[in-house]
Structure formats: structure tokens, C-alpha cells
Amino acid sequence: LLSYRHSFHAGNFADVLKHIVSTSIIDYMLKKEKAFCYLDTHAGCGAYSFQSPEALKTKEFNNGIFPLWGRSDLPVPVARYMEQVVEFNAQSQLKHYPGSPSIAVQMLRDIDRLFLFELHPNEFINMCANFSGNRQIKMAKSDGLQGLIANMPPKARRGFILIDPSYEIKTEYHQVVETLIQAHKRFATGTYALWYPVVNRMTIDKMEKALKASGIKNIQLFELGLQEDSDQMGMTSSGMIVINPPWTLKKEMQASLPFLAKLLGFDNQGFYRIETLVAE
Ligand code: SAM
């Protein structure tokens, strides 16, 4: 049933946005000495090659990470994310892309803990190979949304949860909102980031509406689009909805998204959204 493979898309403009927001959140959490937990509901395998047949087939990285590589004029939050990509490559050439769990592993301290969920059998095997021997990490080949609810609240009582589904099944848009509501009931102070693709705008409008009506407070939205909405073009834009964002996040996205929309957008059509869906 699961046919989505992230290796076709790693390092595209959606990953760029997702991982800039993630590094900004982790960076903020690292400022306090107290340990925290990182939970990735849809972790993928954690490492991707730009030379794989999958990556070369779509070449989506050409409208994502590649135009950013080697630039000296990056806004600070983008530069900090790029430091993670550089560290992962450990060389002067951009050959590999770190998935979300690799970025977290690079950034977290010994005291912090990671939970990674991945349902696809091969992706799970690759994930285990990439992170074997790391005792900070718990990996499970099971449904990440159920895993999220089961693990809330985390022992550390501080947490960053990344929810990054492949949305292969239409009901996932509804399911993620329901899961967020449940998880938030168990752990109201956690920082949650939900990634969404804009393939059909109405689906996202509905998701935003449901979150606004959920009773959850302090929700912000950050979106980066390469071209105008279109029902015929596949994913033209994608976003991150963040519950309990660090107070610094909005300012950091204000510094980053106009730059990215201009650099990556097609024919000056690039755009961004920075919105408070629900105030604190
Ligand atoms: N978060 C990763 C990153 O940023 O590098 C990319 C994840 S990719 C968009 C989504 C992943 O979720 C795929 O590897 C897919 O196999 C996996 N997946 C799909 N349904 C799942 C589920 N119910 N629970 C856990 N993983 C699932």
C-alpha cells in the first residue's frame, strides 16, 4: 500500500522549508539546559543521495537545496540550516541530503532523546542501518500517529514533535488534525510542527479551519510556494503549521521566506505566507 519514497523528493523546496523550521525550533530548545525529546512520526530513512536514480529522475533538488549551496548571502536561519547540510556532507561537495532524523541527531545533546517511527519496511531497515548503535534513539516500524499519542507526554516534559506524512491516503489530512488534538490533550506544552503539501488548496483551507476550531491556542503557519495554486501541477507549495512555536520563530521566518520565495520561485511567482492561525 505504501508507495511513497522520499528519495524522489529529498532536498526539494518542501524539505528546505520543513528543515529550516525544524532547525530553528531545535536551536531554540537547545538554549535551555533541560533535556528534551524529539519525536518524528514519519521519519523516513534519514539519508539520501543526490546521485540515486530516484533523485536523478525528478531532480527536485534543483529547485530546493542546490540553489542555496555555497551562497554567502543567506538569511541567518537559512545559514544555520545549511550548516547542518554541510556537516552531513563533511566535504566540499553537496552529495547527500540529511533527512529530518539526521538533522536532529546532529543537533541534539547526549541528554536528549529521539523517537522515530517509519512504517515502510525498506525505509525502516535503512533507518536502522543509519542510526544503529545510537542509544539515544528508539525506532519503531509502526504507525507514527498512534506512536505519537502513545508516547505523550514525554518523560522529559519538553518536546518537539515533527509530523511529516506522505498524504498518500486522502483521510490523512483529517487524521493528522485529530491526532494533534489528542496529543495536545496529553501534552499541551509541547511544540508540534505539521508539514502539509498544497496540491489542492481547499484541503488545506479545511485543515486550517479544523485547527482553528480545535480549541488549541498559539498556532502559526509558514508556507513557501514556487508558483500559483493549480490543481493540475501537483505540489506547488507546502507549509508548516506550528503549535507552541518558539517566540523567535516568526521573526526568523520573516527573515527567510521572502528570500526563499524570490530565489526558488518560478518566473517571479514564488510566494510565502506567515500567519498566526490562533493567538497565544
Ligand atoms: N520526515 C522525513 C524527512 O524530513 O526527512 C521524510 C518523511 S516522508 C515525507 C514520509 C515517510 O512516512 C515515508 O518514508 C513513508 O514510508 C512513511 N510513512 C507513511 N505512512 C506512515 C505511518 N502511518 N507511520 C509512519 N510512517 C509512515
UniProtKB/TrEMBL annotation:
Residues that bind S-adenosyl-L-methionine = H19, H42, S100, E118, D143, G144, D164
* Swiss-Prot/TrEMBL GO biological process terms: rRNA base methylation
Q: How does it assemble?
A: Monomer.
Q: Its domain of life?
A: Bacteria
> Could you identify this protein by its name?
Ribosomal RNA large subunit methyltransferase J
Record-annotated active site:
D164
Q: What is its EC number?
A: 2.1.1.266
- One Gene Ontology term of the molecular function aspect: RNA binding
What is the main EC category here? transferase
Query: What's a Pfam family in this record?
Result: RsmJ
The UniProt entry, under InterPro entries, shows: RlmJ (IPR007473), SAM-dependent_MTases_sf (IPR029063)
